[in-house]
Design goal:
It contains six helices and seven strands, in the order ααββββαβαβαβα. The protein folds into two domains: about 5-40, GTP Cyclohydrolase I, Chain A, domain 1 (Orthogonal Bundle); about 50-190, 2-Layer Sandwich (GTP Cyclohydrolase I, domain 2). The radius of gyration is 20 Å and the shape is elongated. The chain is α+β, with helices and mostly antiparallel strands and about 200 residues long. The longest helix is centred in the middle third of the chain and has 15 residues, at about 125-140. A hairpin with a 5-residue loop joins strand 2 and strand 3 (about 90-100). It has a five-stranded mixed sheet. Strands 1-4 form a two-stranded antiparallel sheet.
Length: about 200
Amino acid sequence: MAVDGERVAALVRELLEAIGEDPDRPGLRQTPDRVAAAYAEFFSGVGHDPAEPLAHTISVAQGPAPDTLPSGAVMLRDIRFRSICEHHLLPFRGHAHIAYLPGEQVVGLGALPKVVDIVASRPQVQERLGEQIADAIATSLDTRGVLVVLDATHECVTMRGGQQADTSTVTIAARGAYREPGARAELFALLGGGFGPGANA
């Protein structure tokens, strides 16, 4: 379902009036349309299936490099993402780190950032964002374990309330073998940054 840009623009105009502003003054005249265009981008993942980028898999045994069957995890670090907190409609952004233990089928590495982008492009909370990424990978790929670590800064924390400008939030979502803290210790060592069993699960 596409964002109704015309309706968003009308509501933004009403919002500007509600805070005591004049939506017809020069600096705000185009704001409703600009916000509508931004929302079309921010919320483009609403109603889209995050598993879609994972539909095309590659057979390790019968693929172009059958002699390179992975013996350990495949990890993609530092995937940049941005999302909108559903509590205040303020942005949060950071990096996603994804690892999975492949079976006979693997996926092109470019598919994983697309999964993150789809799930992040909707009103979210960070904890659910990580869980939805992990679920999409675990249910779509031939995998024995999935680990998703998100490290993000939330404007609802940095710009309002206590205004903790240097605070970031780390969440962990694990499936399969990586539900065991010992099994993911090597991955945390590769990530660095103080991630570990004490981080939010």
